[in-house]
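All the exercises in this workshop are built on plain-text protein records. A record pairs a protein's sequence with a compact description of its fold. Read left to right, the backbone structure tokens trace the chain's path through space. Once this layout is familiar, the rest of the handout is easier to follow. Here is such a record, shown just as it appears in the course material:
>
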Amino acid sequence: MSEPVSIPLKDTALVVVDMQRAFFNETDSLGRAGLDVTPLRAAIPGSIKLVEMARKAGVPVIFTKYVYMPGMVDFGANRGAKAEDRMAQKSLAHGTDEVEIIPELGVKPDDIVIEKSRPSSFYGTRLEPVLTSMGIRNLVICGVTTNICVESTARDAGQRDYGTFVVSDAVAEFTKERNHYALFGIGWVFGTIATCADVAKGWLGEDAAAAAE
């Protein structure tokens, strides 16, 4: 049996990574490029729970969006899987509906939304200045995909000495193997692997933890 995980409430923010329509809808650019996005939908229920819990507990919620500038000028030379197809389809391009965060997460007009064009939520973004100004020292992370954007964000957070917690039942990857090894690597060095129940207990108490299991 794994040891219980203690999730801090003080100086903590929830970071919801790239929960955008393109990562879940097979008719958007990633699906049209030949990627099966259906396994990624496993991250949706847990992420919804975490956002709801954070709002109840008064924990700041920070969303990220993977989106390229007009003209795809920041698409980059190291483009990854299905790059030519994604470039041709202007995948995750600024101004397209597919880059919007899914409505189930209930993003509010005054929520913090960090746009990025690389896997890490820290690289080339305003995330760290935002966290510094808010006095945040602990991050609870959920979203997609576990092996790419979630892991990159967790690695950068851990190396910056944030308390880093990745919620295993609120993330997803294209394959089970990649999901497993990403969580294993994060938990080995860069952070702590938690569950929605762990977060509920830390933020809302024992009764909430039982309901979140």
Observations:
- The domain at 12-212 is CATH 3.40.50.850 (Rossmann fold).
- The mean pLDDT is 93.
